[in-house]
Write a structure and sequence with these properties.
Layout (H helix, E strand, L loop, with lengths): L3 E4 L2 E4 L10 H5 L2 E9 L2 E2 L2 H14 L8 H14 L5 E8 L16 E7 L6 H6 L1 E5 L20 H12 L4 E5 L5 E4 L3 E6 L2 E4 L10 H12 L4 E3 L4 H5 L3 E6 L3 E8 L2 E2 L7 H15 L3 E2 L2
Parallel strand pairs: 7-8, 7-14, 11-12
Antiparallel strand pairs: 1-2, 1-6, 3-4, 3-5, 4-16, 5-6, 8-9, 10-11, 10-13, 13-14, 14-15
This protein binds 3-[O-phosphonopyridoxyl]--amino-benzoic acid.
C-alpha cells in the first residue's frame, strides 16, 4: 500500500497528493521546507526544525496557517499512520495558489504538505572509510541576494553544484562564498578538526544553520571537545587533521579526501569517530514521540 500524504488539510494516497499549477511554490519556488529524521518512533530535534521553518517563513512573509503545536501533531500523525518507525519526514509549506504574476499578495492560503517516508543514506563503507569531496565552481548564494539561512524551495544553487559533484564522481562538494571562504557542502554543513579543536564556518558566511550542526555543538559541550566558528579557507581545510560533514540525511560522516588531498592520514580521525559515536547515542535517546 502506498503512503498517505497530508496535503490541503487532509490525508490522501500519495498518487492523489497534488498541488495546483498555480501554486507559487511551483511557479516561483516560493515556500520553505524541512527534512526531519525519525529514529525509534521519535522525531529527532523536531522543535528545532519547526523553529527554523517558522523563522524562514517569517522572513519571506509567509504566514503558516496553523499554530506550531497543531503542525507538530499533524507531523506526528503522518508518521504514525504511515507506520514509519525509522524514516524521514519532508515538510513543505508553499505560498499557495495565486495567479501567473509574481505577487504573493494574490495567493490564497499557504499549502502545508507532510510526507513521511524512508530515506536512502550513504552505504556503511562511507562511515568507515570516509567521503571524497571536491570544491565546486558554483559559488554559494550571496546572503545579500538570498540568505542561505532560509531553507527555501529554490534549490537551484545546490542542484548546479550537485551536477559538478556527479561529474567528478565525488561524494559531496564544498561550496565557497564570493570571497573564497568555505561556506558548507552542497546539502550538508562542513567541519574540520585542527589540533583537537573542531572548527566550522559561521553561518553568516553563507551557510544554512543546520540542525545536525547544532547537535554537534551540543555534543562537543557534553563531551568537553573544543568547538568554534571561524572563517575557513580551502588551504586550511587541506591542512586540517580531520574533516567531517553533517546533515539530517548524512548524520555525521567523515571526509577523508578534499580535492584529491588526503585529510590527515586519509582515514577518519579520532575526534570525528568520537562525535559519530556520541551522535548515535544522542539520536537514540532524544526526540518527540509520535504516539
Ligand atoms: N546545508 C544545506 C544547504 C542543506 O540543504 C544542510 C546543510 C544540513 O542541515 P540539517 O538541518 O539537515 O542538519 C542541508 C540539509 C537530503 C536533503 O535529502 C537535505 C537537505 C535538503 C535537501 C535534501 O539529504 N538539507
Amino acid at each position: 500500500m502506498g503512503l498517505q500524504v497530508y496535503i490541503d488539510g487532509k490525508f490522501v494516497p500519495e498518487d492523489e497528493a497534488k498541488v495546483s499549477v498555480y501554486d507559487h511554490g511551483l511557479l516561483y519556488g516560493d515556500g520553505v521546507f524541512e527534512g526531519i529524521r525519525v529514529y525509534k518512533r521519535r522525531l529527532f530535534m523536531l522543535d528545532e526544525h519547526l523553529k527554523r521553518l517558522f523563522n524562514g517563513a517569517k522572513v519571506i512573509r509567509l504566514n503558516i496557517p496553523v499554530p506550531l503545536e497543531e503542525l507538530k501533531d499533524k507531523i506526528r500523525e503522518t508518521v504514525r499512520i504511515n507506520e514509519i518507525d525509522e524514516g524521514y519526514v519532508r515538510l513543505v509549506v508553499t505560498r499557495g495558489k495565486g495567479d501567473l504574476g509574481l505577487s504573493p499578495f494574490k495567493c490564497g492560503t499557504p499549502n502545508i504538505i507532510v510526507i513521511a517516508s524512508t530515506i536512502k543514506i550513504y552505504p556503511d563503507e562511507v562511515y568507515r572509510d570516509g567521503l571524497k569531496i571536491i570544491t565546486v565552481a558554483t559559488r554559494r548564494n550571496n546572503p545579500d541576494a538570498l540568505s542561505p539561512q532560509i531553507k527555501s524551495l529554490n534549490y537551484l544553487n545546490h542542484i548546479l553544484a550537485h551536477f559538478e559533484v556527479v561529474n567528478a564522481s565525488a561524494d559531496e562538494g564544498l561550496m565557497l562564498n564570493d570571497q573564497g571562504y568555505i561556506t558548507e557542502c552542497v546539502v550538508d554543513n562542513f567541519f574540520i578538526v585542527m589540533d583537537g579543536k573542531v572548527i566550522t564556518p559561521p553561518t553568516n558566511v553563507g551557510a544554512l544553520h543546520g540542525i545536525t550542526r547544532e547537535a554537534v555543538f551540543r555534543l562537543c559541550a557534553e563531551h568537553s571537545i573544543m568547538i568554534e566558528e571561524q572563517n575557513l579557507s580551502l588551504v586550511e581545510a587541506y591542512m586540517s587533521d580531520e574533516a567531517f560533514l553533517t546533515g539530517t540525511a548524512a548524520e555525521i560522516a567523515p571526509i577523508t579526501y578534499i580535492d584529491d588531498r588526503p585529510i590527515g592520514d586519509g582515514k577518519p580521525g579520532p575526534v570525528t569517530k568520537r562525535l559519530m559515536d556520541a551522535f548515535k547515542e544522542y539520536r537514540e535517546n532524544n526526540g518527540v514521540p509520535i504516539d
